[in-house]
Design a protein that fits this description.
Layout: H1 2-27, E1 35-36, E2 39-40, H2 42-62, H3 64-72, E3 75-76, H4 83-99, E4 105-109, E5 116-119, E6 127-131, H5 132-137, H6 140-155, H7 158-188, H8 198-238, H9 240-249, H10 251-254, H11 289-297
Helix pairs in contact: 1-2, 1-8, 2-7, 4-6, 6-8, 6-9, 7-8, 8-9, 9-11
Transmembrane segments: 42-63, 159-180, 200-223
EC number: 3.4.24.-
Membrane topology: Multi-pass membrane protein
């Protein structure tokens, strides 16, 4: 629950910050003011919400590789220092050629749990990183499958798509929060002036939070869907049996608290505890390992 709570708080914080900026620019400086004598201008509101909703996601996307390196302590392999590093670079290079993308940066981060992630705004300038725990606990065949899974994320453009979906979802949240805020201000608090009252601002921020929680479930649903697609790519590049073996090798780590930084958990191959269904499962970034393995067993690609 801590992982889910921190993820939601991070996203909600972005929404609230942009909501306050939205209000300050429109009320103090008159920029993008969506209120007029007839109440809300819905077209202007939709444009402004889409603009502000996308800004945070786009900025995060362009900074994703830098943030990933800093938050995980990833060391990029510029010149391989041993046979293991050389094998990692060679394997990623071969898989990248097979799917027709540019050679990603390859890195290692210090984490006792077996894990890996891929990120970057451009599929030809991505980063693929594995944990020290993954290298030490998995067989070469399993590591190859994990790398293929991450290359799948890159080739499928998952980082870009996830950022765009988050931006659009944020735009919808801001849009409907302000419509509800306007309704409360006008219908309940009987504000008849051309300018919005305090009820509009308070209600809008409260609804940003509530709708933002609900909207996060949509983003996490897509995150779970893309894990299945990346698993299939891993099966194509490394072999289905290797991919299933790699997922089974993650079981001990799945029962432990996740040590990945919050900003990277949606991009990792494993996401900590995830057994059983609950309301919290709607906000998980990854399906259960059992579900992923069952899906791969049906895969014949």
């Amino acid at each position: 629950m801590m992982r889910i709570g921190l993820f939601l708080l991070t996203n909600l914080a972005v929404l609230i910050v942009f909501s306050i900026v939205f209000m300050v620019l429109s009320q103090v400086f008159g920029l993008g003011n969506v209120h007029g004598s007839g109440g809300l201008n819905y077209v202007s509101l939709a444009v402004m919400c889409l603009l502000y909703g996308m800004i945070g996601s786009v900025i995060s996307l362009f900074l994703s590789k830098w943030m990933a390196k800093k938050s995980t302590g990833t060391i990029v392999i510029d010149t391989p220092r041993n046979g293991t590093e050389q094998w990692l670079v060679d394997t990623v290079a071969r898989q990248a050629r097979e799917v027709g993308i540019g050679m990603p940066e390859v890195g290692i981060f210090d984490n006792a749990q077996p894990n890996a992630f891929a990120t970057g705004w451009n599929k030809n300038k991505a980063l693929v990183a594995v944990s020290s725990g993954l290298i030490h606990t998995m067989t070469p065949d399993e590591v190859e499958a994990v790398l293929a899974h991450e290359i799948g994320h890159v080739a499928n453009g998952d980082m870009v798509t996830l950022a765009l979906i988050q931006g659009v979802v944020n735009a919808f949240v801001m849009f409907f929060a302000r419509i509800i805020g306007n309704f409360v201000d006008r219908a309940i608090f009987k504000n008849e002036s051309d300018s919005p009252g305090i009820a509009y601002f308070v209600t809008s921020i409260v609804m940003d939070i509530l709708l933002g929680i609900l909207a996060s479930a949509i983003v996490m649903w897509f995150s779970r869907l893309r894990e299945y697609r990346a698993d299939e790519m891993g099966a194509r590049l490394a072999g289905r049996d290797k991919m299933i073996s790699a997922l089974n090798a993650l079981r001990p780590a799945e029962a432990l608290p996740d040590q990945m930084p919050e900003s990277m958990k949606a991009f990792a191959i494993a996401s900590g505890q995830s057994q059983g269904f609950s309301i919290a499962s709607l906000f998980r970034s990854h399906p259960t390992l059992d579900d992923r393995i069952a899906s791969l067993q049906k895969f014949n690609g």
